[in-house]
Amino acid sequence: MDVLLDQAMDWLDRPAFDVDGGRLGIVSAILVDAARRPQWLVVRRPGWRRGTVTVPAAGALVEGRSVVVDCLGGSAGPSGSRRRRRRGDCT
Length: 91
Prior knowledge:
The chain has one domain (5-69): PRC-barrel domain (SH3 type barrels). The chain is 5% helix and 38% strand. The protein has 1 helix and 6 strands, in the order H-E-E-E-E-E-E. It has one helix at residues 5-9, and strands at 15-18, 23-32, 38-45, 51-56, 61-63, 66-69. Strands 4-3-2-1-6-5 form a 6-stranded mixed beta sheet. The chain is globular, with a radius of gyration of 13 Å.
């Protein structure tokens, strides 16, 4: 399902978690393609892991006040095989 820009704009300043429940940080920016479709979310990380991480917007959803993202974005590798998820893929 494609994420709409208006929908993604509501995610700014919300806490972001990976699908395993790990806290990533706060959504601070949305990166769009030429057609203004959200492609990536920039998440600001707190504490000793300061900095940002960029995660796919595809497949992101809202649970309560939080945004839950699939760090691999459902993408397949060049050979068509999906990479197995590992804990910490978003960081």
